[in-house]
Design brief:
alpha/beta, Rossmann fold, six-stranded mixed beta sheet, five-stranded parallel beta sheet, 15% strand, globular, binds pyridoxal-5'-phosphate
């Protein structure tokens, strides 16, 4: 399998060529040159596989530059009961008749990002050892991504993580999760500033090409194809649990921000998984809901980006969205380049043609939005009806899922985080403090490792230089 760029660069690259990269050189995102179609016999054979085996089968359709025995071992090391809490890895929890939650948040950081990031940790360690190289991952986080990256990379050979976060602005639980890690290859840097200051420093350091090359600076952001690929697996796993036969269709509802999670659902559907609808849910930051309702994609400015109680969906533009639009436009790289390059820079957005808009229905997408009041009402009613506490992001998904139910079609809502991560809003909704899992109780009291620095790229570069001397 070869990979190409959404902006027209068709230089064939293998999976391991793009594994450690971010954007393609032309500024586009990588996609496989085609989506392998799964026939009925294969689907039937996969139905009884354990999660790690299913992951191996799906990944091996897209990865032909890692020997099969090695890939199978990496999948087996990643998707264990010990790391994800249950033998099924992503069990379904029934709510109402035909309505399920798929548990994706039982990994070490209690959010679905672990599903992909844990695999990435194993893949990075493997590929870096094979090349005899090292990588210094530099990132900025306001919460979920940073902790998922650190828990995936802790103790891995050949990888160091330098994670910037705005000092004092993450929730106490999130700070404790990250800062209590004692692994020598994990470096927390609290910046005296806001999240945007952290991101600006990452950009400044990455744009210093000499420094970047000399210190082998890399990222683990959500546009990484390997992360998306790992997420395809749980759409299959969820579908198998909700069906008995290949002919049955299922819909998925996905709390969305950067369009990574639901893009994996799009890939699964393109492979032939019988998905009826892909229900995209946003919070008050409704860039994507607006597109799927109107055909206009309009990027928001900072002033228009709301701070909400489902903060991991507070985005002003959706970094993975270009992948779907490329497919929607019949994989026309020149037109994708025009829309996401020139038009975005010139007009801050674009509108697809009426014919292109009509084509969206063929891809199964529908959408909706949810507000703070909706979240509270959904958390409350789910608790009262089913005795289940959902987190704020999952509540957004559940609210929009209910608006799109079709009779006879099961609906699976992806649970993207556990409620303990967003305790304040849960308390507001139902007056109960959600408990973190036993292993994480009391982490607020553990000793912490974290350097505090002014918002200054040169200071961060000095710190990296000092801490990656061999
Ligand atoms: C990252 C995140 C999302 C958004 O996922 P995307 O892949 O960016 O669409 C939703 N919920 C939670 C809890 C997250 O951490």
């Amino acid at each position: 399998m070869k990979y190409l760029s959404t902006r027209g660069d068709t230089t064939p690259r293998g999976f391991c060529d793009i594994l450690l990269e971010g954007l393609a050189p032309d500024g586009g995102l990588y996609l496989p040159e085609r989506y392998p179609r799964i026939d009925a016999a294969t689907l039937a054979r996969w139905r009884s596989l354990p999660y790690a085996e299913l992951a191996f089968e799906i990944l091996s359709l897209y990865i032909d530059d890692i020997p099969a025995a090695d890939l199978r071992r990496l999948c087996a090391a990643t998707y264990t009961e010990q790391v994800f809490g249950t033998p099924q890895i992503t069990p379904l929890k029934p709510l109402d008749e035909g309505l399920y939650l798929e548990a994706l948040s039982n990994g070490p950081t209690l959010a679905f990002k672990d599903m992909a990031m844990q695999l990435l940790g194993h893949l990075f360690e493997y590929e870096l050892a094979r090349r005899g190289e090292e990588l210094n991952i530099l990132g900025a986080t306001s919460g979920d991504t940073g902790s998922a990256a650190e828990y995936a990379m802790r103790g891995k050979q050949g990888v160091r993580v330098f994670m910037l976060s705005p000092q004092g602005r993450m929730s106490p639980f999130q700070q404790a999760q990250m800062f209590s890690l004692q692994d020598a290859n994990i470096h927390n840097i609290a910046i005296e500033g806001v999240f945007d200051d952290c991101q600006d420093i990452v950009k400044a350091v990455s744009n210093d090409l000499a420094f970047k090359r000399e210190h082998r600076i890399g990222t683990v952001n959500s546009i990484n194809w390997a992360r998306l690929l790992a997420q395809v697996v749980y759409y299959f796993a969820g579908w198998f649990q909700a069906t008995k036969a290949n002919t049955e269709r299922v819909s998925f509802a996905v709390p969305s921000g950067n369009f990574g999670n639901i893009c994996a659902g799009h890939v699964a559907r393109m492979m032939g998984l019988p998905i009826a609808q892909l229900v995209l849910a946003t919070n008050e930051n409704d860039v994507l809901d607006e597109f799927f309702r109107t055909g206009t994609y309009r990027v928001r400015g900072t002033a228009e980006t709301h701070e909400t109680s489902s903060p991991s969906m507070d985005i002003s533009k959706a970094s993975n969205f270009e992948r779907f639009v490329f497919d929607l436009l019949g994989r026309d790289g020149a037109r994708t380049r025009e829309l996401f390059g020139a038009a975005l820079a010139r007009d801050g957005g674009f509108t697809v043609t009426p014919a292109e808009f009509d084509a969206i229905a063929r891809y199964g997408f529908v959408s909706g939005r949810s507000t703070h009041a909706d979240r509270l009402a959904t958390i409350r009613s789910t608790w009262q009806r089913s005795g289940v506490i959902v987190d704020t992001h999952t509540a957004d998904g559940l609210k929009v899922a209910r608006e799109h139910r079709q009779s006879g079609v099961p609906m699976i809502v992806l649970e993207t985080a556990l409620p303990a991560k967003f305790a304040a809003t849960i308390r507001e909704a139902i007056g109960i403090d959600p408990e973190p899992p036993a292993a994480l109780r009391g982490i607020e009291a553990l000793p912490r490792r974290c350097a505090v620095m002014p918002a200054d790229a040169a200071a961060v570069q000095r710190y990296i230089r000092e801490h990656c001397a061999a």
